[in-house]
Every structure is written in structure tokens, then in C-alpha cells.
Design goal:
CATH architecture of the largest domain: Alpha-Beta Complex
Helix content: 10-25%
Number of domains: 2
Strand content: 25-35%
Shape: globular
Number of helices: 9
CATH topology of the largest domain: Fumarylacetoacetate hydrolase, domain 2
Distance between the termini: 38 Å
Largest sheet: 8 strands, mixed
Number of strands: 26
CATH class of the largest domain: Alpha Beta
CATH superfamily of the largest domain: Fumarylacetoacetase-like, C-terminal domain
Radius of gyration: 21 Å
């Protein structure tokens, strides 16, 4: 990805260490990291000490006025020469998990993805569940297994159907899911739903996310309560959190929704995002999903996950669900790309139905920026290791 995608119009936040140092907060500019922990210590920025923490949570809790003020100050700094001593080449940094994840929710918001999954598993029935067009379907995941890009993916064990019986062993149909994640900054109290128009005040930024999935475990256990062990073993996110302010030029209206949605889901602003994702297995591009086509937009997802009075906390993460489009090359997981293994795809000089040990999956993305610029998200990557035990 071009370093121009990380110009002053972007300035994503991350947490890194260098030469064994304690975790430090930084922002990426080109192929370098500006050490914001050091910048605050020297008085170049002032957030009341939030940049001295080991994660972004303290900064995220400050709210939009402080986020905007810091961003404006950083734009001034990165276009000056006073920060030369605070820059570190990206390749010399070890990127860490940028947030302390409080809760994790995953949605199911691509109509193309949901339709394909329905056709695969229920070929003689309506592909969409009866509630799908009325509300953003989702489930609670496991916050403790959200990891930063580069963390190995150990093939999970579990129960699966085999030959009419049940057997226990390593997952045989390991999959990726290309998704986009949203990180909450300002919390909400129990019993207080977050109105849809407050999305921009509550959400700090956006990450790329891989919802690793054990399809054979999922098919057996999801009767009737949905994903559990098939999803909870690992979820990977990118190390850079792109602030919402950097995505102003990428905002688009979401797709028309029919039937009309409930009042609390009426979109107050255009919060669809024109993100171009790319998925590669072992450096072979296998999919190019587009996020702009997602039926349920992130503001609707936030409104729905709190409409019953569920509280949110600083560091809550919620994901879009698999990003897929109408064309085969836009499908965001192997379940769709290979039609549950019936149509293998080429990966270099090999074929795949599902992931093999040693495979590396990399998801990257860009978005349009101001005046023709490009906003980069970096990438989220993981290598599959054999099952243990």
C-alpha cells in the first residue's frame, strides 16, 4: 500500500513498542510513526495524560471535541519540522493490540452474504431468515480472544458431524470472514439507548477485522442458538484505528431498505462507507468486496445493539459481518467463494476449498479521501497453525 495513503488526511492511531520499550501510542504518517507518548511528554500535545496509557482507551473516553482538537494539532505537527526526533520507521516498531476490548458484537449485515449462506444451507427454502430485513441480526462474541494482526491462528478443535455421526477433532473447514470493525469511545449507561444520530459522537474509529470461522463446528453447534465455539477461538483486527474524521469523503448513503425500518433505525445521516477491501491467501488475491453495499449501516447497528437499554463501554468493538457483493469475486469468505467446498478456487499453483495449515490470510482496505487522496487502513493478517492436543 502506498505511503501516500497515510498522509496528513488520515493519521490513524495505534499502539507500538520499539526495542523492548513499554507500549506507546502513535500515529502513522507515511512509512513512519509519530510517537505521541513522547510528544505529550515534551509538551507538543496535551490530552491530560491520555497518551501515556498502554492502550487508546483513555484517549477514546475523552469524546469528540477532544478527538477533533488533537487531530487538528497533529495535522499542524506533521506538516512542520519540529517532530523529526519523534519519528520511527514503521518497520522498526512492533504493533500491539490498540484497544482494551470491553465487549465484542458481530453483525450479519450484507444481504448478498446472508442470501448466499441461505442458499447454501437451505436450498429449498427462502434464503433470508424472516427477521433479516427488519433488524440487524448479530451475536455476542468473545472479547478476550480479539487479537492484533500477525497473531497466529491455531486451528480449533471441536465437535462436527461426520458420516451420520458425531466426532471430535480439528476443524476441517476453517474459513476467514472479511469484515469492518467499529470502536466505541464514549460509553452509555444501562437503560439508555443510543439514538442513531449520535453515532458520530460515540464511535472513535474503524479497523479491519477477520472473523475466523470453523464452518463444520458452526453447522453442528448452531442449533438453535447460533455461533459459539466456531467463532470464539480468535478474532483478528488491524493495528491502526482510522478516525471517523478521516473518512468524511468516504461517506455514502446506505442501500434503500424495503420494507421500511422501525423508527429508531431511520438513518439520520449517510453513514454507509465506500471502502474497497481486498483479501489474499498466500499473496494471491481471492476477493475484492465493497463495503458500500452493506444493507445495514454502522449507525443502525449501534442503535440496535443499545435499543433494549444495553450499556456500552469505552473499548466496545462491533463488527459489520462478512462484507460480500453480488459478483463471485466480491464474496468475503471461502464458504461463499467455494460454495461450501463444491467449487474450489485457485490459490497460486494450488486449489483451496477451505484454509490449510500454513496458509496466511491478509485483508487490506482503502477509502477515498479529500481532493482525490486515498485513506489506507493497513492490513489484518494471520497464519494458520496446526491444531493442538
Amino acid at each position: 500500500m502506498s505511503t501516500a495513503a497515510f498522509g496528513p488526511h488520515n493519521l490513524p492511531y495505534g499502539v507500538f513498542s520499539h526495542a523492548g520499550s513499554e507500549p506507546r501510542i502513535g500515529t502513522r504518517i507515511g512509512d513512519q510513526i509519530l510517537d505521541l507518548t513522547a510528544a505529550e511528554r515534551t509538551g507538543l500535545v496535551d490530552t491530560g495524560g491520555s497518551l501515556q496509557a498502554a492502550t487508546l482507551n483513555d484517549l477514546m473516553s475523552l469524546g469528540r471535541p477532544q478527538w477533533t482538537a488533537l487531530r487538528q494539532r497533529l495535522i499542524e505537527l506533521v506538516t512542520s519540522k519540529v517532530i523529526a526526533d519523534l519519528l520511527l520507521p514503521v518497520e522498526q516498531a512492533r504493533m500491539l493490540l490498540p484497544i482494551e476490548v470491553a465487549d465484542y458484537v458481530d453483525f450479519y449485515s450484507s444481504r448478498d452474504h446472508a442470501t448466499n449462506v441461505g442458499r447454501i444451507f437451505r436450498p429449498r427454502a427462502e434464503p433470508l431468515p424472516p427477521n433479516w430485513l427488519s433488524l440487524p441480526i448479530g451475536y455476542h462474541g468473545r472479547a478476550g480472544t480479539v487479537v492484533v494482526s500477525g497473531t497466529p491462528v491455531v486451528r480449533p478443535n471441536g465437535q462436527r458431524l461426520a458420516g451420520g455421526g458425531i466426532e471430535y477433532g480439528p476443524c476441517l473447514r476453517l474459513d476467514f470472514e472479511a469484515e469492518v470493525g467499529f470502536v466505541l469511545g464514549v460509553p452509555s449507561a444501562v437503560g439508555e439507548p443510543v439514538p442513531i444520530e449520535e453515532f458520530g459522537e460515540r464511535v472513535f474509529g474503524v479497523v479491519l477485522l477477520n472473523d475466523w470461522s470453523a464452518r463444520d463446528l458452526q453447522q453442528w453447534e448452531s442449533q438453535p442458538l447460533g455461533p459459539f465455539l466456531a467463532k470464539s477461538f480468535l478474532t483478528s483486527i488491524s493495528p491502526w484505528v482510522v478516525p471517523l474524521d478521516a473518512l468524511a469523503a468516504a461517506r455514502v448513503a446506505g442501500p434503500r431498505q424495503d420494507p421500511p425500518v422501525a423508527g429508531y433505525l431511520d438513518r439520520a445521516q449517510p453513514w454507509g462507507l465506500d471502502l474497497a477491501l481486498e483479501v489474499a491467501i498466500n499473496d494471491t488475491v481471492v476477493s475484492r468486496p465493497r463495503f458500500a453495499g452493506m444493507y445495514w449501516t454502522p449507525d443502525q447497528q449501534l442503535a440496535h445493539l443499545t435499543v433494549n437499554g444495553a450499556s456500552t463501554r469505552t473499548g466496545d468493538l462491533y463488527a459489520s459481518g462478512t462484507v460480500s457483493g453480488p459478483a463471485r469475486e466480491q464474496r468475503g469468505c471461502l464458504l461463499e467463494l467455494t460454495w461450501n467446498g463444491a467449487e474450489p478456487i485457485e490459490v497460486g499453483d494450488q486449489t483451496r476449498t477451505f484454509l490449510a495449515d500454513g496458509d496466511t490470510v491478509t485483508i487490506s482496505a482503502t477509502a477515498p479521501g479529500p481532493d482525490g487522496a486515498v485513506v489506507g487502513f493497513g492490513e489484518v493478517t494471520g497464519r494458520v497453525l496446526p491444531a493442538r492436543g
